[in-house]
From TrEMBL, chain A:
<dbReference type="Pfam" id="PF01799">
    <property type="entry name" value="Fer2_2"/>
</dbReference>
<dbReference type="GO" id="GO:0016491">
    <property type="term" value="F:oxidoreductase activity"/>
</dbReference>
<dbReference type="GO" id="GO:0051537">
    <property type="term" value="F:2 iron, 2 sulfur cluster binding"/>
</dbReference>
<keyword id="KW-0001">2Fe-2S</keyword>
<dbReference type="InterPro" id="IPR012675">
    <property type="entry name" value="Beta-grasp_dom_sf"/>
</dbReference>
<dbReference type="InterPro" id="IPR036010">
    <property type="entry name" value="2Fe-2S_ferredoxin-like_sf"/>
</dbReference>
<dbReference type="Pfam" id="PF00111">
    <property type="entry name" value="Fer2"/>
</dbReference>
TrEMBL record, chain B:
<dbReference type="InterPro" id="IPR037165">
    <property type="entry name" value="AldOxase/xan_DH_Mopterin-bd_sf"/>
</dbReference>
<dbReference type="InterPro" id="IPR016208">
    <property type="entry name" value="Ald_Oxase/xanthine_DH-like"/>
</dbReference>
<dbReference type="Pfam" id="PF01315">
    <property type="entry name" value="Ald_Xan_dh_C"/>
</dbReference>
<dbReference type="InterPro" id="IPR000674">
    <property type="entry name" value="Ald_Oxase/Xan_DH_a/b"/>
</dbReference>
<keyword id="KW-0500">Molybdenum</keyword>
<protein>
    <submittedName>
        <fullName>Xanthine dehydrogenase, molybdenum binding subunit apoprotein</fullName>
    </submittedName>
</protein>
<dbReference type="InterPro" id="IPR008274">
    <property type="entry name" value="AldOxase/xan_DH_MoCoBD1"/>
</dbReference>
TrEMBL record, chain C:
<dbReference type="InterPro" id="IPR036318">
    <property type="entry name" value="FAD-bd_PCMH-like_sf"/>
</dbReference>
<dbReference type="InterPro" id="IPR051312">
    <property type="entry name" value="Diverse_Substr_Oxidored"/>
</dbReference>
<keyword id="KW-0560">Oxidoreductase</keyword>
<feature type="domain" description="FAD-binding PCMH-type">
    <location>
        <begin position="1"/>
        <end position="177"/>
    </location>
</feature>
<dbReference type="InterPro" id="IPR036683">
    <property type="entry name" value="CO_DH_flav_C_dom_sf"/>
</dbReference>
<dbReference type="GO" id="GO:0071949">
    <property type="term" value="F:FAD binding"/>
</dbReference>
<dbReference type="InterPro" id="IPR016169">
    <property type="entry name" value="FAD-bd_PCMH_sub2"/>
</dbReference>
Amino acid sequence: MNEETHEIRLRVNGVPRAATVPARRLLSDCLRHDLGLTGTHVGCEHGVCGACTVLLDGRPVRSCLMFAVGADGHEVTTVEGLAAADGTPHPVQRAFRECHGLQCGFCTPGFLTVVAAFLEENPEPTEEQAREAIGGNLCRCTGYVNIVRAVLRAAELRRAAGRDPQAGDPAPRGPVRRQRP
Amino acid sequence: MSARMFGAPVQRTEDERLLTGRGAYLDDLGADAYAAVFVRSPHAHARVRDVDVTDALDVDGLIAVYTHEDLTGPMAEPLPLLLPHPCIVDGRTPHALAAGYVHHVGAPVAMVVARDRYLAEDAAERIAVDYEVLAPVVGIEAAVAAEHVVHAGMSDNVAAHLVQEVGDARAAIAAAPHRLELDLDIERSACTPMEGRGVYARWDEAGGSLRLYSSTQTASGVRAAVAAKLGLDVGRVEVVVPDVGGGFGVKIMHPWPEEVMVPWAARRLGHGVKWTEDRREHFIAAAHERGQRHTVRAGFDDEGRLLGLDVEILHDNGAYLPYGVIVPIVTSTQLLGPYKPGAYRVEFRSLYTTTVIVTPYRGAGRPQGVFAMERTMDAIADRLGRDRAEVREVNLIRPDEMPYDQGLLFQDGRPLVYDSGDYPRTLRMVKELIGWEGFAAERERARAEGRRIGIGLACYVEGTGPGPYEGGHVQVGTDGRVRVATGLTSQGQGHHTILAQIVADELGVAMSDVEVTTGDTRRMPYSVGTFASRGAVMSGSAVALAARKVREKALRVAADALEADPGDLEIAGGRVHVRGVPGAGMDLGTVAVLSNPLRYAFDEASRAATQFARPADHAAPPVPEGDAPGLEGTDFHSPLRSTFANGAHAVVVETDPETAEITILRYCVVHDCGRLVNPLIVEGQIHGGVAQGVAGALYERMAYDADGQLLNASFMDFLVPYASEIPPIRIAHLETPSPLNPLGVKGAGEAGVIPGAAVIASAIEDAEGFPVRSMPISPSDLFGLRRRFAAGEIPPLRRAERARGRRANETGEPDV
Amino acid sequence: MKPPPFHYHAPTTLADALTVLGETGPHGKILAGGQSLIPLLNMRLAAPAHLIDINRLAELDRVDVDDGGVRVGALARHARVEADRSAAEAIPLLRQGLRLVAHPVIRNRGTTVGSLVHADPSAEMPAVLALLGGSLDLVSASGRRTVAAADLYVGPLESCLRADELAVCARFPRPAPGTGTAFVEIARRRGDYAVCGVAALVTLDDDLRVAAARAAYLSMAPVPHVLDLIEAVAGRPPDTADFAAAGRLARGRLDPEDDIHATAEYRAHLAEVLTARALREAAEAAVGALGASRPDPERAT
């Protein structure tokens, strides 16, 4: 019994990528194992922990609760794509380091993607809003204290920069393509 | 010149990689490896009659299926009992794959290897196992009753039984002016690191050697155990620990069934094999902890001074005892905390049940012990109508009594002797931090608003940094960079950073010139592992000692080249120079070149060390006797015994009079782990520990049904808190240096979690006016207690009665 | 935890989708947001032979607001409905409920209609639909029908949808003028399924007296359970209405069950407490709505 596969094309961190996957391949597995982007981590595979969160067309989603075929024609941003092209860290990355917002680092990519998207919509969060923004991600190491600090610090860094260094044209929602073998 | 790194809140060296997705965790490795999955028992207790794999063979991509029948020699035997102890009556350990019987849901019965995990799961689903279901034994009561036994050949479920006694506690209690007895329960919980376990193995046929990657807390332990199982010389097994996504204790257990099966299969198949644990497996096939029942009898005087303490402990160790009796031993000994009862007797029974095994979870038995002792302190205070802090105060060991011998044998097999600490000051500080004295007024204000609040307090002492030893290797390269290796492994504690801080100071180099490797048996084969808050104490000390050796040699080699006295030299900024004359010196890289006499030059710099390059003393050999080539040093730290950190937590909670919701208003920590290497990191450790303490007190429990099915084997129902559930945390430090190691440090990794259940129970009890004797507690549980209290089934706290202006019932009977 | 294999269909028109659905029958399952379905697949608790992915049916990604109320298309994500200002103005209860659905990241992907047909008795949106007396438009290759919320739910995770039917649109009717709503719930962790949740609606008449009081319950019955509680508070002005009595009335009519998070007794107690809280809040909102609407009679009608 040979499983049918599908060819998908998507933009990952700004780069056009293609993969041939069975329909049931989770987006998380596709990113990690088919595209070699192992920065996205898998912590529960039932959508509770948030470690696998990536940005789909700029909005955070659980990559373990999506099939890779569903991302065909879309734009995906992973932790590997947060820094600027020249390697300048994203304010969120800087802030997490400054505030000791990570320990083992396993949940961190999910927090970074969520917070990066959150600050786009809410550049001046209160502490309460910062806490709420990360309220769907589990971390077992930090007790969240320094993560909340890091969210506020990232907002500060972003404001200090005067603009978001990541800002560019919003990802175009590309035409949906689907190809069958 | 260079600022001292030790003690500075230095940003972590680990972070840059981890923040950019360049971490390398177990499942990030071995892209071309086969995937292993395990067929696991759906029953808590059963005989395996037959395993039929026929249907699985149709799955495209299937490579192999193994059952116990395929295993021979040591692989077919039970896994080792890691920590033998004379008190173990009958120490049962699991087989790598079920040998006829399964003793808990999740026990591995067959191993499937396929091209990828999806296909392996397809095949596993098609394997039909015929079970004869046997009677489950779930919970301490069933284990004690022994109507059914977990293991054939045993007449009951007692795995181990130990009594330790100092003085005649029972006589002291009988003679005491006041007595009380308490039953205290803690339910099961688990570490649940965000990354589960995982193993990846590659067999090198040509070299006859194995490379094993494991998400473990002990590289050397895994190496020895796997070598023994596979019948290999340890020299042919390399264990490399990649980035590990949290451990909290569960990954100190080894070798797991999967940890021996994966390398065994890799060798047999001549192909890389990888197993990545999924979340459900982590709940039903890794390890749990905490489940314990305590009966405390105490005798005390009018001031609340403990004259005698007698504790009986029933410990649920799950289906097997591979990690021995460390958890109940730690409870029995660390229960004493900062106090000095007149006499103490402790007895535990460790019991088999048909549930997941129990191995240490951050705190490792201490949370239970502190819960028992601190609930007792509160009960004494309540009985006597005294302030809870005051009763603690009269029982504290004073600083001038250090070192203080508790007269027991600790978990490392060595005497329980506290080395240092200022317990009275710790208590004073936490009272101040939380606002203990002003709380009565705060409570009244809240009451006027119709709100119910309570305050709690708990103290602890934590044995940290036990031996036997840990090693450090420090090497200065000819490029001047310093490479440091230690054998223990890192799961997020920032070891790479703090070890670099220590070495940078010792050697006078910049931190950015120090690279640290942990958990790689190729770099440091001798090691024990990461547990019991021992990273900074053990490896910190070891690398400091090794660096001192390197420094000494660097000075000697440089002095020779500079024709100076070593005593006149110093190292700063990566350069050895004559003190006060920065110009007269050389880089450490050059010293490294000179430290290794060469015949052949391999680059420009190395010419300086060749045989015609410089004048030599022809009366002495190029490498002096007793010396070795190279600017490197190895040393080991092996302490006399554990060092004892301590602390106190205090908390204010609010309980909703209507909904019984429990909210933490503020949480304060006073913490003494000796000298702080990096306050940023220590505070991070405390935050995380407190979060797990709150989790264990209010959210997390393993819910087994009577059949031994775990009802909440997911993050949906096992309630690891989100940010919304964790309160702000205030921390104050005390630094009482330990005399037992060269850095004066004590462990900091576990402290935050230890008093969690005790302090929160204390505060809820205070808010509610009736005793809380079982944790964790949910709003539904609290509601149930309120009902029972209203029905007169639970007596009120005496202070609550007094507060209501009623007469206390002075019968002198135990207030249980 | 990897999903079992399935045949994947990704129709680009509604007609195609219905054809596939007709062909696969009971072996087919619709994939919209997937936030409930994919966990079940990953745990292999469900193994449909065919998955019909409707994410390419852009025509279903819509939220329409008119005098009748709010129509939510099958592809509208929770986050989109939540963010829709005119929908929230028309029916504040929509946003009140949506804010309690899991976490924002789940709401970015999960669809409101998907949640309605998933029929989880602990989910918020079925209670909202039930309380408002809304309905679901179902289409199949053989026709179209509208099912009222009251008839939709059969049991836990079970609705009356036929295997060949696709829910294309949910209709949330605008409540009567003078109505206020509230949604309160208690969950173990924020974002978890509620231990007990109450969506409440209070309508005031022109004299500012309670004319309607209803509540819908989650986690209290096998299906979203709506109780008419008017008898406890009928004709009273909101500030003297005995909402606690309404809570007691509700408690007497509910028969919840135990689970690992809460006893039945605690749930029943919460229902009583939360009913009173939710009704009180809804009544306040009704007063506010009337106050706000008086100068602008257009909006109140």
